[in-house]
Structure formats: C-alpha cells, structure tokens
Amino acid sequence: MDTQHIRNFSIVAHIDHGKSTLADRMLELTGAVEQRDMRDQVLDDMELERERGITIKARAVTIWHEYRGERYQLNLIDTPGHVDFHYEVEKSLQACEGALLLVDAAQGVAAQTVANAYLAIEGDLTVLPVLNKIDLVHARPDEVAEEIEHSIGIDATGAMAISAKTGKGVSEVLDAVIREIPPPAGDPDAPLRALIFDAIYDEYRGIIVYLRVVDGRIERGERIRMMGTDKTYDAVEVGCFTPKMKSTGALSAGEVGYFISNIKRLGDVKVGDTMTHFRGPEVEMLPGYREPTHMVFADFYPTAAGDFEGLREALETLSLSDSSFSYEPVTSDALGFGFRCGFLGLLHMEIVQQRLEREHDMDMIQTAPTVTYKIRMEDGTEDEIHSPGQLPSPDKYEGLLEPIARATLLIPAEYVGALMQICADHRGTYVRQEYLSTTRVQLTYDIPLAEIIYDFYDKLKSSTRGYGTLNYEIVDFREDDLVKLVILVNREEVDALSSIAHREQAEQRGRSIIKKLRKEIPRHMFEVSLQAAVGARIIARENIAALRKDVTAKCYGGDITRKRKLLEKQKAGKRRMRQIGNVEIPQKAFLSVLGSAAEGK
C-alpha cells in the first residue's frame, strides 16, 4: 500500500482520562468491530485489565477511515497510563509518527500527562491535544487548554473537544489524524527493515511477534533473519490486527502487524530487534529500545519446594509478553529456592504476581519489596545490591547510597501545605513550585525512592481527596544514614523479612513489622519471641505466649503442692521445647508485612 495513505499514531494520557474508551469509539465508528461484538475496553483483553479498568499492555489495531473521498489505513496503538508502564508507552511511540494527547476536561493536566507528552516530543512525534469528557457538568475546556500550554508548552488553541463516551467529536479526531500526522517515511522498494515492538506467547502457535515495517516488504513464505539474535525463520503467517488477527499475506513499509513462524524458544525473540531478509542486502539495525531500569525488587518463592521448576517456566513465559521485568535464582535459609525479580514499580510487581497466580496457577510467597542500593567500597568502587541480605557488615564498606526520585506532584492549590508536610516527613527535598492555573499547582521534590514505595502514594491520595497525581524518575544516588533492619523469630534471623531503613525510622518500622507478625503467627506449644534489631542492638520486641494445656484439670481439692508439682513439670517440658522447637511462619504473615508497602500502589 502507498505510504501516503498510512498513518501510525498512539493515544497517550494519564490513567483514567479515557484512552481505551476513545479507542472503542474509533473501532465502532470505522466499523472495525460489529455492533453485536462491541463491549467496553475492546482492546483490553487481559482478565486483570478488565477487572481493574486499566490498560497494562499496549495493543495495536488497524482501522480504515475515509477522508475527502480517499481511504486511509490508520494503525492505532492504545497505551497504558500508569507510571509503572512507562516502558510500554516508550516502546509504542517508536512505532508511530504522531500521538493524541488526551486530557480530562474536568480533571485537567495530570502528572503522567506531562511525562507522556514529553516522551512523544522527545521522539519527534506530532502531538495533537484532545480534550475529553466535555459532556461532564464540571468540564472546563478553556482552563485545561491553558494548563496544557503552560505545563507542556504546546499550542492548545485548536485543541479538539470530544466525549469518548458519547462519541461526540471522534470523527473529527480521525480527520485531524489524517490531516496533521505525517505519513511514514519508509521506502517500500528498499531492503526489509522491521522493528519488533512487542511479542506474546501462544501455546498453540508459539511466539507471535508484533512488528512495524520501516522499509521494504515482508511476505508469507519468505526467510527472515533477526539481526540481534542472528536467528532465521520462515514467515508462516503475516497479517494485521482488526482487532483480531487477520492474515494479509504481506506487510509493506509503514504498516503495523504480526509475524508467526512457529518460534518455540522464548529467548529467540528480543523486543527492539530488527528483522530483515535472510541473505538479503546488508542493512543498518534500527535503534531499538534502551533497557528498562528496574527500581523495585522482590523475591518469589514457591510454597511447595517441588514447584521451583514450574515457577521458572512461568517466569520465562511471562517475561516474553512483559519484557520490562527481570528474574534470577536466589536461595533463602527460611524459604528455600526462589527467584529475585526486578520491576518498574509497585503496581507492576503486583500485576506480575497476580498473572503468575492466575495464568500459571502458581502458589507463592513474596517478600517485602526493596529498591536498588549502591555501596561504596574503601577503594572507591561502587556495587549494586538488590536485597538487604546482600548488604555486608558496616565495616566492609564506606557508604550506603539510595536512589533519589525527582517527584512531580500535580495537586489542587488548597492542599499545598498538607502535601509539603508529607514530603518533609518522607525526607523530601524541595525543588520548585509552579502554578499552572489559579487552582492547580505543580510541586517538584527530590524524595528517596524507598519512601515512595513504602506509603507515600497512599498518603498523597488521602491528603488530596484523590485529586493529587504523581510521576517520578530516578535522578541520582545519594548517601544517607541507612541501616539494615533485621527481624528475629525465636532469636533466628528471617532474611526474607529484613529491610534497609533510615536510622531515625528504623525503630518505628521495626515495631510495626513485629506487631503485624504477632497477629499472624499462630501460637505454638512454647513461647515465641519476635525481635527487631539494628546491628547488635534490639530495638523492639514482642512475645507470642505458649499454648497451655490445663494439666491440673483432674486435681479435685487436696494439697496445693500436687497442682504446683504438675505445673512445674509442664514448665520444664516447655523449656526443652523452646530449645528445639521450630517456628512455622505462614504465608499470610509475610504478606501482612508487605501490606504496609503495597498500600502505596
């Protein structure tokens, strides 16, 4: 197809600003989905996406639209809005020439609106501002257009006002996409170059590769080489998404679609790789993507020791459809063999955990999340550590550095004071404050990432009644007075519950953890001591009383010494049990400790 009649674009916005609803109306308007098959969130086909009402994976779809008597092919990529899926947005934008910046006309510009807009601008994409939800009574399109110009710096005077829910103005948006967004610049006659921007695993057909053809043409039956992995495959099926997979036999320059070749091994496909013809002319690789930076780490351990290989296979399968998390095997004295996984954020971690449980039927114990720290050695070198268990004793290193996040907070003006206090309580450093309008303020703070993943987001939402939004990026590693907080159960260290905390907060956090454990660990036949320690100093302690059998129940009257003798005998037996007894810690005890951090998702 002539590239002049192709447009590749993406929809970017903050979470809940209506991206998936707008995609639904576009599919409906262009007839891509029949009315009887129409439902909300057509492109969100993952169970978790529909349940939570959020987009987790970017989805591509090809639609057709007539403009001035000519038929155009529009390749739309619907992207997530949550900060944890920033990487999905970044990948999707590389397959596009333009982006629709969707802003809620009632809520206004939010933190992720700004972040995604800058991503599109940095990628040299044409950005079209669109004001959604104008059918709401409290919509304020003129004010929001001013906010867009002030906070992002793009002209919003001609911003289209639409309602994705009712369909008002959606046809004009499609016309604007054809009119304003440039066609792809690829050469259909040049040697084949195609960018792999995603991949999913199908148990019947193997790996399905999502690709954007930049130059040349790919046809069914051709032999294809992946330049990054140097693997060759036959194109068994080539096609586009309408939104279901539809075989077209070929894809030419500028088009977006899929490629199937009975690829069985998960490691053979790399997102960001370049595809070209086998034994064809030499071509230059496309830029691809920078590797995602994992900032939150947690360990997953199978509940049954025999499920270790099953967990490995599940993680392998999941890593193909979500290339933004990593995993490596680890061992724990308390929990046995498992995997340390790296994530982009807390919600990302929660989604991976739930997908493992639902899609792969895995029963796991998950440790409390931690961030990446750096330790500075005596010779000046720096090493990364991903869990408190890797931290050596204080005499082995000179300094401990933690990641600092540049947090951008968009809030109503009346909550500025409360939020500044929250930032100060979380060791935040003030950077700047900007008024986007008389009612909206943008605060910028440098806050340790460990504080953000603990409970910062939860407090932000509570203090602003849900109107505050947060976006952050890692800017630096900074040294502070950090200590390793150790949890002891019956004087034995439980490495899975250890964490790194600021010295001033260690005692409070230690007390909080052992109080939760005291509620969750069942009583044993002997007394169980729970302790929190920093180095050799015990900073908090709780006891779980022993279960007691009424050994004097059959003593009716008589000398009191008979009862005392039986009680002393029981006490001596419990002392022996204390010396040899092993404490069973249930999974929900680990999850209760995790809870204080997970609330901030």
Descriptive account of the structure:
The longest helix has 21 residues, at 560-580. By secondary structure, the protein is an alpha+beta fold. Strand 12 and strand 13 form a beta hairpin. Residues 596-601 have low confidence and may be disordered.
Write the layout of secondary structure elements.
Layout: E1 6-13, H1 19-29, H2 47-52, E2 59-67, E3 70-78, H3 86-93, E4 98-104, H4 111-122, E5 126-132, H5 141-151, E6 160-161, H6 170-180, E7 193-202, E8 206-215, E9 217-219, E10 223-226, E11 231-234, E12 237-241, E13 245-247, E14 250-252, E15 256-260, E16 274-277, E17 296-302, H7 308-321, E18 326-332, E19 336-343, H8 346-359, E20 364-366, E21 370-371, E22 373-376, E23 382-385, E24 399-412, H9 416-425, E25 429-435, E26 440-448, H10 449-463, E27 469-479, E28 482-489, E29 492-493, E30 499-502, H11 503-520, E31 528-534, E32 537-544, H12 560-580, H13 587-598
Helix pairs in contact: 9-10, 11-13
